[in-house]
Design brief:
The chain has about 190 residues and is of the alpha+beta class. It contains three helices and nine strands; from the N terminus they run αααβββββββββ. It folds into two domains: about 35 residues; about 130 residues, Immunoglobulins (Immunoglobulin-like).
């Protein structure tokens, strides 16, 4: 019985330390709370913005040439291989590139929380090879205990233009749940 009580105390102290660290690392939350307590109107939550990528893989050759000359985009006829989508909780992104060998895609999934440390990231990636029509998926759960989460996967997609989309959510230390906003990324996988 004493051992269980001691274990609970250690856990409670540890949990309070994590909460205090999150509070100290998030001064904007503390400042917003002080402003509201002082009678100032509370700040409105940040607006949601959705990023867009030029999808060179769906463009005609002359449009790709124009984008390359004018904006420095569309190298090798593919889209820019990273997409980041932001919201009021943070951002999620995905990056796709050539993997370890022919037909494999290296995919990096990541998220960042504005509202506190991420204790659990539940994610899924679905990849479609536009050249062959084949699709494949993977996913998992990780516990980063950090404001930033990142993971790499090496996935067999076959040779061709491959689009990968990230879905899932991040659970924060205080119980908040942030949903990933479906960033997607496309690249040619040799």
């Amino acid at each position: 019985m004493k051992r269980r009580t001691a274990r609970r105390r250690r856990y409670t102290v540890w949990l309070m330390a994590v909460f205090l660290a999150a509070l100290l690392l998030s001064p904007s939350l503390f400042i917003a709370g002080r402003a509201s307590a002082a009678g100032a109107p509370p700040k409105s939550p940040p607006s949601t913005s959705i990023g867009m990528n030029l999808d060179c893989g769906k463009m005609a050759k002359d449009a790709q040439d124009y984008a390359k000359k004018k904006y420095g985009l569309c190298d090798a006829g593919t889209v820019q291989p990273q997409d980041r989508v932001s919201g009021n909780c943070g951002w999620s992104d995905i990056f796709i590139s050539q993997g370890s060998s022919s037909g494999y895609a290296s995919i990096q999934e990541s998220a960042f929380s504005y509202l506190g440390p991420i204790i659990s990231a539940n994610y899924g990636v679905y990849a479609v090879n536009w050249t062959t029509g084949a699709g494949t998926g993977l996913g998992g759960t990780q516990s980063p205990w950090s404001f930033y989460w990142s993971h790499y996967d090496n996935l067999y997609t076959g040779v061709g233009t491959v689009n990968a989309t990230l879905n899932g959510s991040a659970t924060l230390v205080w119980g908040g749940v942030c949903t990933f906003a479906y960033p997607s990324s496309t690249a040619y996988i040799p």
